[in-house]
Structure formats: structure tokens, C-alpha cells
């Protein structure tokens, strides 16, 4: 059973850019709206925040080996995310889309990209990695040219640096246009620096600008 996502920002018919922001384990769309979306300054953003019916998108840790149960849960959550993305994009198909997520939501966003391939827009994965391990069979779509921001913490309790690095390598092999940051001693949350990068990405997409990672 799915639960209704949360809509924030302007309506799609008045938007300049679309955003889908996926919450993490034990979080909610409302928590992400308060912690992240309300702190953005870019005007004209229509944001949809999907909701995991059970509070998480899958039961295992992202770094655990994939088994049949996790694969089933992941497939169901990816299907739900794809439906939410489609529902938003059909209201403003001409606009770019920034898919973003935090923690488990970042992992789900990454898996969507590797399954679905690139789109008109960008991806931001805050404290994310691939779900499963290197030896697991996982989708690996070509992401040529897709701007991707990947962040992590050096002592994060859920996503170790090794998993962050493996995700960065996978994105590199997929030809994504990648910026990756590790934040020393950062709590397991979306920091002010990460929110500022999200804001810049949205502003660049809204203005039709080439994303400038040197800023």
C-alpha cells in the first residue's frame, strides 16, 4: 500500500524547475520539507516529496548483500518513485527535473538513475551509495552527461566511505558529470553546505545554465 506524496513550493504550472526529494529511513516528507526544502531560496520550484508507506524504502542496510527480499522491496519502491516522477513531469513535461534524496532516499535516487538512465535535469544524492555490494548483479545504465552531486561523511554510521567511493566509481564508469564531497565529522543529516549546493543546482536548471561545479 502506498501513501500520498507531499507537494511543496509552487504548482507545476507556475514552476521553472521540478524537484523530487526522497526522504531517508525513519524520516518523512514533512521532515524533509522543514529541514531542506523550506531553506531553499530558488524561486519557481515545484517539489514533490514521495512517502514510504512503512517509513523506509527497504528493510536491509544499503551496504548489505542483495537478497530476494531486498530486491523485491527495492523494486516496489523504485516503481513507486517512478510513478511519482511521472505524475509530476506530466504536469510540466518541458521543465528540467532535479531528483534528490537523503540517506536511504539518496540510495533509492541513485538506483533509479542506474535503472532508468539520464533525463533532462540532474541528480543530487546526499549521503548515498549503491544498494548492495560490488559482486551483486545491479542495473548500470549509461548516464552520459547527467550532472550528479554525491556527498558523504567520513564517519557516517550508515554509509561508510568505502560505499561512497564505490558509488562515485560507478557514476564515473557510467559517464555522469560528477561532483563528490566528503564532509569530516558531519552528522547524519543534510548540512547547510549541501542545501546551498542543491539551491545552486536548482537555480542553474531553472535558468537553463550549464552546471558550474567550480563555484
If you consult CATH, what is the topology? Rossmann fold
Instruction: Give, in order, the helices and strands.
Output: EEHEHEHEEHEH
Give the neighbour order of strands across the main sheet: 1-3-2-4-5-6-7
Low-pLDDT runs of 5+ residues are: none
Q: Give the averaged pLDDT, no decimals.
A: 95
Structural class: alpha/beta
Q: What is the count of structural domains? A: 1
Tell me the distance between the termini.
43 Å
CATH architecture designation: 3-Layer(aba) Sandwich
Specify the CATH homologous superfamily. Alpha/Beta hydrolase fold, catalytic domain
For this structure, the quaternary state is single chain
Radius of gyration, in Å, reads 16 Å
Query: How much of the residues is beta strand, in percent?
Result: 15-25%
Q: Counting H and I runs of at least 4 residues, what is the number of helices?
A: 5
Helix % is 25-40%
